[in-house]
Amino acid sequence: MSMSNALFTYTLRRADDLLILSQRLGEWCGHGPVLEEDIALTNRTLDHLGEARNLLTYAGQVEGKGRSEDDLAYLRMEREFTNVKLVETPNGNYAHTLVRSFLFDAYHLPLMQALLESKDEQLAAIAGKAVKEATYHLRHSSEWLIRFGDGTEESHQRAQAALDAIWTYTGELFETDAVDAELVKAGIAPDIASIQEAWSKTVDAVLAEATLKRPEDGFMATGGRNGLHTEQMGFLLAEMQHVTRAYPGATW
Asked: What range defines the domain where residue 26 resides?
């Protein structure tokens, strides 16, 4: 695999995670449990989308085929998306949404912090802009998870049920392949083992404060990085890509 192909794939994977999660969180707009949280989730959605745009633009430049951020977001089929399955899972109730965000945030922040040291100047610059937002996101989701877990009996049960249901999707965050090996060797991407260690420490600390039990590691649902997604992904893309596909080339 050439370095440019590896860099394109790596950058696209980071972008797809954020793009799909932003689409999911955007579904809460106007439906949040309280006004403050409605606004907070909308802001988080825009943060993820902004970072995804930067990464998609860079991925298009690395690919060298003239594809723009819009082309990559709206004109790829389901099997061409490389996001982890975690971010495409349905929102469920608010506890489910916050648990999903927390598990992703605990991974995303140390990844962005590590990419600050990347030898790829563009990735390092994108990470530099993202770190502050990622820090806030983790703090927000952690505080809410603690509130749910250490709250009422019902909120605790909902948070634990969400954690148990989503845990099977966390293993994919730390899968590696030839793409990662090539970029780690070149000093462009961090070793995922260090990210997993930071993630695990954060998860353990927050779950302990939330009085929630960390699920046992078992079967992990994977395949998203290679375009194998859940049945929900097609419905998500149908909504996200509808306008562009219904009116090709439209501008406003």
From this structure: 3-246
